[in-house]
Amino acid sequence: RDLRMSRGLGDVYKRQVSDSSCGVIAIVNTYLYMTGQTTITKKDYIELCKRFLNENKFDNILIEKNFGALPTTMCRYLERLCIEQENLKIHAKWNCFSNDNEYQTMKDMLKNNIPVVWGLYSMNSCLKLYQWDKTTESYIEFTTVSSHYVVVTGIYEIKREDGSIKKMVEISSLGKKCYVDYDEYEVFKRSVLSQTYEQNCNLNISKL
Prior knowledge:
6 helices, alpha+beta
């Protein structure tokens, strides 16, 4: 069973800033999706990223130190862009979900055509990102991450021969289409040394 957003981000918006700016890229892509913009010039895209860095000096320092942007700052920037640029009033909140409902919450958001910004974090483990290989018709490892913001663009539930379900989450990672094996993500999430700092969370967006 496939579940995808009606307008996919895919590879439309390519990486324009450093890898540590993954949160900036994720929130800019979310803004473009929320406002129905499927095309943008390279100059305008970079300007949206630069504006975030210029308006949020502390986050800029964090990004320069390879820590990444703060979720609360990302939420406020998304709200400002939507109201200032498109007169769209939204409320963005960073939520941490329990292990029991995180997957279902993402499915529900996609069903309602709401972007999912996914924060992947572990202090002592790496998570594999896959890409689909048309030649072998299989998922092949592309890279690994330990601290990364991505945008979820789809969920694929594939039935195995033994009747179990393989869950592959389609994501936009710095503008590249990749996939996360959700079973591997569950192991990755449990590897966090300090469970009180577990940052495997989602951005919850609602229109006002």
